[in-house]
Amino acid sequence: MPCRYKEVEVLLKKLEKQMTLALLWSDAHPSDVDLNSQAPFACDKIPFEHWLQFIFIPKMTMVVNSRNSLP
Questions:
Q1: At CB < 8 A and 24+ separation, what contacts does 57-66 make?
Q2: Would you give per-residue pLDDT tens digits along the chain (71 residues)?
Q3: Summary count for the chain: helices (H), strands (E)
Q4: Rounded to 10 degrees, what is the CA torsion of 71, 33, 46, 24?
Q5: What's the confidence (pLDDT) of residue 3?
Q6: pTM of the full predicted structure?
Q7: Cα(52)–Cα(10) distance, rounded to whole angstroms?
Q8: Rounded distance, CA 35 to CA 17, Å?
Q9: What gap in Å lies between CA 9 and CA 39, rounded to an integer?
């Protein structure tokens, strides 16, 4: 895995760990309707930490695993 992808992978794991330590990691999954909000960061439907956990981290993990272009 190229260095940049590995760096992003490490940062994503650190983010998850810090969210867990801060008690921001959730066991309750938001509804599909809430996750498909058109507002930036789904701010009208879910808190920012849920956006990180259920949208950002999974999408960035897919980018890293498939070695697609990093944003």
A1: 57/12, 57/15, 57/16, 60/8, 60/12, 61/9, 61/12, 63/8, 64/1, 64/5, 64/8, 64/9, 64/12
A2: 668 999 999 999 999 999 999 999 999 999 999 999 999 999 999 999 999 999 999 999 999 999 999 88
A3: 4, 0
A4: -80
A5: 84
A6: 0.89
A7: 15
A8: 22
A9: 27
